[in-house]
Amino acid sequence: MQSFDNPLAYWLALIRVPGIGSRTFLRLLETHAPEQVFKEPVSALLALGLKEASLPAIKNPDWVAVERDLVWLGQAGHYAITINSPDYPRQLKEIADPPPVLFVYGNPSLMASPQIGMVGSRNPSTMGKETAFNFAKNLAECGFTITSGLALGIDAASHRGALAANGFTVAVAGTGLDRVYPASHKDLATQIIGNGALVSEFPLGTVAKANHFPRRNRIISGLSQGLLVVEAAIQSGSLITARLALEQNREVFAIPGSIHNPLARGCNALIREGAKLVETTQHIFEELPPYFQQDEKFIATDNQSMLDLEQQTLLNLIMFEPTRIDYLVAQTGSPVEEIASTLLILELQGYLETVPGGCYTRLK
Predict the structure, then answer these.
(1) Over the stretch 185-207, which tens digit does the pLDDT of each residue have?
(2) How many angstroms separate the CA atoms of 69 and 134, rounded?
(3) Cα(116)–Cα(221) distance, integer angstroms
(4) What are the distances in angstroms from CA 43 to CA 27, 46, 59, 345?
(5) Is 132 helix (H, G, I), strand (E, B) or coil?
(6) Comparing 316 with 276, which gets the higher pLDDT?
(7) DSSP E strands: which ranges in the chain?
(8) What is the DSSP letter of 352?
(9) DSSP type of residue 91
(10) Would the N or C end of the chain have less CB density within 10 A of its end CB?
(11) How far apart are CA 235 and CA 242, in angstroms?
């Protein structure tokens, strides 16, 4: 067997063994240091409950990959934190199946900071993205690290909101940290590294696979004091994360929405099941331990006083769900051309957006 002076090498080799997940790894740690596992005879390994499919990788580890890991870890800002390290986040160690090794690219001390996880749809509405951005920004201003999954949609808006506040944000990846998924978020990942951290349990070279993302999600909720779901369809993966958070004894928060909005049904379902209905960040602070509570700082920007009477009257008729222009004509008695002109002004000022079917939806 190849010998390494650095004990971490054997941790890196063991996490690469097929069939050894978090639970099996942690069970092995009860009786063996990782280096000892590689020295055991086959009979002893089978007696430990390991599957035969795992044995070839134990008897012939991928030391080339381990060497690459060690080279990567030798670079500035690159870390691997093992579960027996004092730097391993206490919150994460409390869950049923914490990852034995956490790879970190950025500031590892953030793992111990008070965190709010934020998740939601990959294809949110404009209002959903704006809501996620504003909540993340305010929570970051109040001292929370915003933790999410670097995905499209709500995840990205949450990371960007924290960055806009010059706050901290953690992105938990479903790949190795030598790659970014989705690739379109490379610039965002770079910004996060500069003011936060990328985190993964997957070793270098690991590509994105569907089964990686539920595993990633348990880390998002496990690191956090509470999880906020912004927009989610009824079959959304965000609901899986919320249920994981409940199993981990974390607070779950959800932003409600219209019964006609498919992207609100997941959040509304969570609220029916006992999640805290959230309209402001103060609602989040009320559910957290006293030492996390902060004064409410978020005051929504309100420029409606700058609208003239006609614009304000029309805006008050438009709901936070698709509203047809013929309804507005019937309610105001104004010509359709005049209403269309006012709607365009309101849209340009960010008060509403057009949606399919010739309808408008209010944003604020």
Answers:
(1) 999 999 999 999 999 999 999 99
(2) 38
(3) 8
(4) 17, 5, 12, 76
(5) helix
(6) 276
(7) 78-82, 101-106, 115-119, 145-148, 169-172, 196-200, 226-229, 251-254, 276-277, 323-324, 352-355, 359-362
(8) E
(9) H
(10) N
(11) 12
Note if the pTM is more than 0.70: yes
What tokens appear for 84 in the block?
Answer: 């027996």
57 vs 295, residue with greater confidence:
57
- Residue listed under structure tokens 């997940």: 21
Q: Are 269 and 283 in contact (CB under 8 A)?
A: no
Question: CB–CB of 309/300 below 8 Å?
Answer: no
Q: What is the pLDDT of residues 125-135, one digit of tens each?
A: 998 999 999 99
Secondary structure in 3-state letters for 268-314: HHHHHCCCEECCCHHHHHCCCCHHHCCCCCCCCCCCHHHCCHHHHHH
Question: In one letter, which amino acid is 62?
Answer: D
Residue type, 355: V
**Two tokens, residue 109:** 């001390």
Instruction: Cis check for the bond before 182: say yes or no (omega within 30 of 0).
Output: yes
Which residue is associated with the tokens 């054997």?
10
Which token pair is 174?
């479903």
What value does the mean pLDDT take over residues 105-134?
Answer: 94
Sheet holding 251-254, edge to edge: 78-82, 101-106, 196-200, 169-172, 145-148, 115-119, 226-229, 251-254, 276-277
